[in-house]
Specification:
It contains 14 helices and 13 strands. By secondary structure, the chain is of the alpha/beta class. The protein has a domain of about 200 residues: Rossmann fold, CATH 3.40.50. A hairpin with a 2-residue loop joins strand 4 and strand 5. Bound molecules: zinc ion. The site of zinc ion has 8 residues, from helix 1.
Amino acid sequence: MSKYFYQCNDCGAKYQSNEVTYLCPKCEKHNTPTMPPKGVLKTHYNYEEIKAKYPKVELFKQLEKKAWIDVLPIKSVESFPKLKVGNNPMYHFDTIEGKKLTFELYFKDDSQNPTYSFKDRASVLVSAFAKENNIETIVAASTGNAGSSLAGLCAANNQKAIIFVPKAAPLAKLTQIIMYGAKIVPVDGTYDNAFDLSVEATKQFGWYNRNTAFNPFTIEGKKTVSFEIFSNLKEKSPDFVFVPVGDGVIISGVYKGFEDLLNLGIIEKMPTIVCVQSDKSKNIVANLENEDFVSYPSSTIADSISVDIPRNFYMAKKFIKDFAGHGLLVTDEEIMQASKILSRNTGLFSEPAATTSFAGVLKYMRENKIPKGAKVVTMLTGSGLKDLKSVQPLLDMPAPIKPDVNELKRIF
Ligand SMILES: [Zn+2]
């Protein structure tokens, strides 16, 4: 018997691991291109069996030692590409802009993954699963990060990657995809158009699809960050985790990781997860209280989280509702300001989509919403080098001077 099974987020139907690959067939039938898809699957394990395997005091350490393989849908760590994914540093800072903080501020830096974004956590698992199932070609639709990530990890694992991108994707990400040797398919349309085309291609050509949320293992890969945060805090839960949100898959992954820890009896309480979006791409936060989903056209500078139809809307919403999470909107100006403050105070340079989380922390600080002594984790999900264009307005590049010391004296 397989060590995992699926449950549909929306209708609750359960499936054995060999019965389905992507969405719940019952819910998928009713999906339309203008609404978030229903039928995203959550992967479950036999938690009682895992608990019984190890003494309670050692449980977390044992899971960590075995690279979480007990709670991942693959058989062996040998199937992973030979690049280091995850185990990224979490930095503690106690001062921001010269002000001593009254709470513990941490930055989980996922720009240190091999392709410089959080997406590697999902790609590495999809690649390993493909390897174990003799699948050679993996496709993905992407605004850039998921695509460059899959391209890089497939290159490392001797697999073919085909990446569908909207033509407006940033140059650095497109460059990565091509340099890693993937087949790139630019689509004259939006991310949603690229997504639908890649799903169609999956059906027609029989390729394996890594699309975010559509493939349930994207959530499973992303959840590993929560295990690491718990480990980084010396087996303590954070009080808050600020997550930058577009499609709703990263935040669902963060929740799923902590939910696994709850199911295993390792933690007793879910941290407060803050879902931070730009007010120019607000389709999860703005719909938390709506009965029916309404899409607000997105136009944020933070390209990785610019989404009209969030692919994991219903799961993200359910997690936020079930575990009393917060929805928070920040402006693009606040995101740019946060990028500047982050880099100047910490030496960490993140893309605007990633600093959206820190813009949320700064907003909560201004509004005195963070209790004294709270452990606050800010997720940084991608390197600033991936999207240089959007920070250009922040750059005040001085004019060149003559190579003359008197000129220097004039400046200083
Ligand atoms: Zn269903």
